[in-house]
Amino acid sequence: MAIKKTTILVFGGSFDPPHSAHISMLEEAVTLIKPERVIIALTWLSPFKKEHFASFSQRRELLSIALKKCSFADICYISDFEFKRRKKTYTWQFIKHLKNKYPNSEIFFLMGSDSFVSLDKWRKSEYIKKSCKLIVAIRKGFVPKKSGALFLNKMYPPNSSTEFRERALFCDFSLLHSKVAKKIKKHGLYFADLACAMKENMSEKRFLHVANTALLSMRLAKSHGIDIKKAVISALLHDCAKELPFKKQVSLSLKLFPESLVRKISDMAPLAIHQFASAALARRKFGICDKQILKAIAWHSIGEKNPSKLGKLLFICDFASYDRRHESAKKVREIAFSSIEKAYTEVLRLKKEYIVEKGGRIATI
Ligand SMILES: [Fe+2]
Ligand SMILES: [Fe+2]
Fold first, then answer.
1. CA of 236 to the centre of ligand 1 (A)
2. Residue of 326, 307, 329, 328 whose CA lies nearest to 318
3. What separation in Å is there between the alpha carbon of 10 and the centre of ligand 2?
4. How far is the CA of 273 from the centre of ligand 1 (A)?
5. How close is the Cα of 197 to the center of ligand 2, in Å?
6. How far is the CA of 210 from the centre of ligand 2 (A)?
């Protein structure tokens, strides 16, 4: 007598963070194949990424919350396989592990069409195709030829985790289950704590500028291999003292910088004193001790003599953030995605040109 095989649905990913599209894909796949078991392969470190925004434990906690109310919650497990290995694991290795653990099983592997179109580039893709049946959720922008897999009916958004992380800079958590969003805010993941603190403490216009500066900073840091965490933190905090009264800005600045320097800037470029005040407030109120971040904030307005890459990045992003509508901002944004150095030189040139045009003095330190 033939023994009935156990049907297992596998869904892998970074889940950084898990969002509503992940859950919808799973719900649709479960309805389609009615598995006895759903296994979530949470990646320790994706073969396609250098690092994740949240740790494995944090992502596992968020996933557990997101999966709690699903129709298949009682048959769903988050695998610890990669956690125990604590190293980069390829999909074929995870499938081999499942094959050994559940020898009498039929494995369905759920993936987005963005992954499906590049499957042939994956390690041992032939083994993956032979060992499992593929289920593909079509994501906008990645509509493949419908063969070699089962296809879900709904259309899903492209890379929603990236979209979520970008929206979080604007305190927008609409792509998430409310309890997942609550946990993210509580633990300050994905910069939600800083973004929300900025939103609460400044005007709407200023906050939009700050969030747009952080968004550009996040994208440029990613594309140039600059530390994303430092880039986003410095961008979110760079104007945190800008709306304080001038006197308060000066007194804050004096807590972190020499009096001669503060006096010089407040005399030559009074509007720029907020750069020192913001660095001081970032340290005092938000506990930022990283010297690179504080230095980048402290010179984001007039620029410094020997800026670090982070300093150049913030200087560029402040000038060319997405809320700046002028043509030169657009041009600088374009240059910045190909060269930080060229964009930095261009911003310096434009700022000097503007000051000379207005008959002002260029502050030199
Ligand atoms: Fe500023
Ligand atoms: Fe700014």
1. 11
2. 329
3. 45
4. 9
5. 16
6. 6
Distance from C-alpha of 158 to C-alpha of 138, rounded to nearest angstrom:
9
Q: Would you give per-residue pLDDT tens digits along the chain (365 residues)?
A: 566 789 999 999 889 999 989 999 999 999 999 999 999 999 887 655 667 899 889 999 999 999 998 999 999 999 988 888 877 788 999 999 999 999 889 999 999 888 888 888 888 989 999 999 999 999 888 877 778 889 999 998 876 788 889 999 999 998 888 999 999 999 999 999 999 999 999 999 999 999 999 999 999 999 999 999 999 999 999 999 999 999 999 999 999 999 999 999 999 889 999 999 999 999 999 999 999 999 999 999 999 889 999 999 999 999 999 999 999 999 999 999 999 999 999 999 999 888 777 665 544 44
Question: How would CATH label the architecture of 6-159?
Answer: 3-Layer(aba) Sandwich (3.40)
238 CA from centroid of ligand 2 (Å) = 6
What's the gap in Å between 207 CA and the centre of ligand 2? 10
The CA-CA-CA angle for residues 254, 255, 257, to 5°, reads 60
Ligand nearest to the CA of 241: 1
Three-state DSSP class for residue 53: coil
Distance of CA 253 from the midpoint of ligand 1 (Å): 14
3-state secondary structure 138-161: EECCECCCCCCCEEEEEEECCCHH
Measured in angstroms, how far is the CA atom of residue 319 from the centroid of ligand 2? Answer: 7
Tell me which ligand sits closest to the C-alpha of residue 208.
2
For residue 353, the CA-to-ligand 2 centroid distance in Å is 19
Give the closest ligand to the alpha carbon of residue 235: 2
CATH classification for the domain delimited by 202-357, as one of 1.10.3210.10, 2.60.15.10, 3.40.140.10, 1.10.10.10: 1.10.3210.10
In the block, residue with structure tokens 């929603």: 160
Sheet holding 37-42, edge to edge: 76-78, 37-42, 6-13, 105-112, 132-139, 150-156
